[in-house]
């Protein structure tokens, strides 16, 4: 790889960090490890071709162009966390991955069975991810940051909201959400 290719790859990975919270190579490797997948299976669940997944992982491509695929990534991240904490078994995870594979994206609030906890109330993390997904379906993280910078002098709280939910990590958004309740 020559210097120009290395620079382009580094730039793509930085964009991915801004848009998705981390480079897609690291994010996808975590999903592969946490859910016991291989690259071909992950590509199939996400609705990407294997070459496209490879290009995203290697930094040859920066952005996932299809909002439904971005939503599937978020659903897989949530599923991986549930497998890790033991609330979902490996067998249940396999079934859920098939549901995720079939999901068409659309409204981030459309499937109430996945948005609620056992009590019927939406989980904080799920609400936060829905807000993130909605913002990120409207604009790229860099554009959201630019909008936040424009708003900051007159509306600092709104600018912070855009930065945290539009371009930040889910854990930071959850903390922000919880700090602003009651």
Automatic annotation (TrEMBL):
InterPro entries in the cross-refs: Cro/C1-type_HTH, Lambda_DNA-bd_dom_sf
Molecular function GO terms recorded: DNA binding
Stretches the record annotates as Disordered: 94-121
KW DNA-binding (keyword) present: yes
SUPFAM superfamilies, per database record: lambda repressor-like DNA-binding domains
Alphabetical keyword list: DNA-binding
Start-end of Polar residues biased regions: 104-120
Protein name: DNA-binding protein
Organism: Streptomyces monashensis
High-level lineage: Bacteria, Bacillati, Actinomycetota, Actinomycetes, Kitasatosporales
């Amino acid at each position: 790889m020559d210097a120009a290719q290395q620079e382009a790859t580094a730039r793509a990975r930085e964009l991915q960090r801004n848009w998705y919270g981390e480079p897609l190579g690291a994010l996808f490797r975590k999903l592969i490890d946490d859910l016991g997948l291989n690259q071909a299976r992950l590509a199939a669940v996400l609705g990407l071709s294997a070459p496209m997944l490879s290009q995203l992982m290697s930094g040859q491509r920066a952005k996932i162009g299809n909002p439904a695929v971005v939503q599937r990534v978020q659903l897989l991240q949530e599923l991986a966390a549930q497998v890790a904490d033991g609330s979902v078994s490996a067998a249940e995870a396999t079934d859920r991955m098939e549901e995720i594979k079939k999901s068409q994206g659309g409204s981030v609030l459309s499937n109430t069975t996945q948005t609620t906890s056992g009590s019927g109330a939406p989980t904080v993390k799920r609400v936060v991810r829905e807000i993130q997904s909605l913002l990120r379906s409207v604009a790229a993280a860099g554009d959201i940051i630019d909008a936040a910078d424009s708003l900051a002098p007159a509306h600092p709280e709104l600018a912070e909201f855009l930065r945290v939910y539009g371009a930040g990590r889910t854990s930071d958004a959850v903390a922000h959400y919880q700090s602003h309740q009651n």
